[in-house]
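STRUCTURE:
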């Protein structure tokens, strides 16, 4: 078997065990960021359609926007892989989270078909990117050797946040009659 030329070999990545990773601030900050993304994402994803209807759009338009969001989510997931190869997962994830926040602002303002579809396209792209980057960010920080145990340790927390977000948004709506405050 011929050896790969030195210039073509991937550079060695750091490898952390779960025990080592949990002792770092980076582990807890990434876990906090990803868990918050799941909290907000769960709330927005479940309540975006009723919010759009509350904004005066028809349920047909709202379904179209949610479908657009889903399609562009797939596109964003693929594109983020190319972007992260150029600027790294850390920056791609940070930009994606900021983009998702701006997408939610657009959702709050979406009271016309144009704004609603602009939201669906933009938020789909950046949300799809965040979903992909959640899978990649831990590998970039801690290597791939213990990725299964590291992701396995944080996934239950992320799923609790994902399940809690829609409930909090629903309660906020029940108390105020609007999604605006909880989305902000």
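SEQUENCE:
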């Amino acid at each position: 078997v011929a050896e790969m030329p030195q210039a073509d070999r991937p550079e060695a990545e750091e490898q952390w065990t779960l025990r080592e990773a949990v002792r770092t601030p980076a582990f807890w900050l990434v876990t906090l960021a990803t868990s918050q993304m799941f909290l907000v994402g769960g709330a927005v994803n479940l309540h975006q359609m009723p919010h759009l209807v509350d904004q005066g759009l028809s349920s047909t338009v709202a379904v179209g926007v949610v479908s657009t969001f889903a399609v562009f989510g797939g596109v964003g997931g693929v594109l983020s892989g190319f972007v992260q190869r150029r600027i790294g997962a850390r920056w791609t994830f940070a930009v994606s989270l900021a983009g998702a926040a701006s997408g939610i602002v657009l959702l709050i303002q979406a009271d016309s078909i144009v704004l609603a579809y602009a939201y669906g396209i933009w938020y789909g792209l950046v949300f799809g990117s965040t979903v992909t980057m959640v899978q990649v960010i831990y590998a970039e920080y801690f290597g791939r050797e213990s990725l299964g145990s590291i992701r396995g340790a944080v996934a239950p927390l992320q799923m609790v946040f994902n399940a809690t977000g829609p409930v909090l948004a629903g309660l906020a709506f029940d108390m105020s009659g609007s999604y605006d405050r909880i989305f902000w």
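REMARK: The radius of gyration is 19 Å.
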